[in-house]
Design a protein that fits this description.
This protein is mainly alpha-helical. It has helices spanning about 1-30, 45-60, 65-90, 110-135, 140-165, 170-185, 195-210, 210-225, 225-235, 245-270, and strands at about 95, 105, 110, 240. Helices cover about 75% and strands about 5% of the residues. Keywords: Membrane, Transmembrane, Transmembrane helix.
C-alpha cells in the first residue's frame, strides 16, 4: 500500500515538473525572457500534477481516446475553475484571466484551454503513463522511500515559504501607495482623485522621465514588497486584485519596473 502511494506521489511530482516546464516555456516565449512560472518557487505546478494523476486513475481504464479527451477536457476545466476560485478567496487576487478569449466562463476557464487539456489527457493516459509507470515500478523500495521523503520535505518547505512570502500582499500595496502619494505631493499632484488607469499612466511617465525617478520607484517597490510578491507579479502577467483597481495599477507599475529593469540588464549583458 505504501509503495503504491509513493509511486502516485512521484507521478504527481513528475507531472508537476512537466507542467511547470510547459508553462514557463510558454510564458517566457511570449515575454521574450525567462520567467519562472508557477505559484511555488521550485520547478512545480501542482495543478498539473493533480490533474495528470486524476486522469491516470479515473481514465486509465477507458479504451476510447475520444471519451478520454472529453473526460479530460471537462475534468481539467473543473479543476482549473475550482483552483482559480480557491486562490482568489485565499489571496484576494486573480492569478489568470481568460476573459479576452472566446467561450470562457468568468475568465477562469476557456474552450481553448479545455481542448489543450483534453489533448494532454489523451497523451498522458495513452502514451506517457505506461512509460512513467514502468520507470517508477523499476525503482528499488529503499530508493523510492528516500526519493519520496526528500520530495515531500522540499514540497512542504516550498509551500510554507511561498504562503508566508505572499502574506500581507494588500497591506504592502497600501504601503507602496502611501509612498507614491507622498511622492505625488512633492510633485504637486493629487493622488486621491486619480482612477486606476490614470495612476498607471502617471507612474509609468514618472518612471520613464529619468533614471533617478525610475530608481526611486523601483527601490520603493523593492523595499515594500517581498521577493515572493515581486516574483508573483512577474510570473503572472494577468495577476489582478479582486478588491481595488488602484491595487491593479500598482501591480502593473511594479511589473513595468521589473520588465524595464530586466531589459536594461539584458542590454548590459549584450554590451
Amino acid at each position: 500500500m505504501l509503495d503504491t502511494l509513493e509511486r502516485l506521489f512521484l507521478w504527481f511530482i513528475g507531472y508537476s515538473i512537466a507542467g511547470w516546464a510547459y508553462e514557463s516555456i510558454l510564458v517566457s516565449a511570449a515575454s521574450r525572457r525567462w520567467v519562472n512560472r508557477g505559484f511555488l518557487n521550485g520547478p512545480l505546478c501542482p495543478i498539473y500534477g493533480v490533474g495528470a494523476v486524476l486522469a491516470v486513475l479515473l481514465l486509465g481504464g477507458i479504451a476510447n481516446p475520444v471519451l478520454v479527451f472529453l473526460a479530460a477536457a471537462g475534468g481539467a476545466s473543473v479543476l482549473e475553475y475550482v483552483t482559480s476560485w480557491a486562490m482568489e478567496q485565499l489571496f484576494h487576487a486573480r492569478w489568470w484571466d481568460y476573459s479576452r478569449r472566446r467561450f470562457n466562463i468568468q475568465g477562469r476557464v476557456c474552450l481553448l484551454g479545455a481542448v489543450v487539456f483534453g489533448a494532454a489527457g489523451v497523451l498522458i493516459v495513452k502514451v506517457a503513463q505506461p512509460v512513467v509507470a514502468a520507470l517508477t515500478q523499476a525503482i528499488p523500495p529503499a530508493v523510492l522511500h528516500a526519493a519520496c521523503a526528500v520530495c515531500a520535505a522540499l514540497l512542504v518547505a516550498d509551500t510554507v515559504v511561498t504562503i508566508r512570502g505572499m502574506a500581507g500582499f494588500e497591506e504592502n500595496l497600501d504601503k507602496l501607495k502611501a509612498m507614491i502619494q507622498e511622492y505625488a505631493s512633492r510633485a504637486g499632484e493629487s493622488l486621491p482623485v486619480w482612477d486606476g488607469p490614470t495612476l498607471t499612466r502617471r507612474m509609468r511617465a514618472w518612471s520613464e522621465s529619468s533614471q533617478e525617478t525610475f530608481t526611486r520607484l523601483r527601490d520603493a517597490a523593492t523595499g515594500v514588497l517581498s521577493a515572493q510578491q515581486r516574483r508573483m507579479i512577474d510570473a503572472f502577467p494577468r495577476l489582478t486584485s479582486t478588491t481595488s483597481s488602484i491595487y491593479d495599477s500598482l501591480i502593473e507599475t511594479v511589473r513595468h519596473l521589473i520588465d524595464r529593469n530586466g531589459g536594461d540588464a539584458a542590454d548590459g549583458d549584450n554590451r
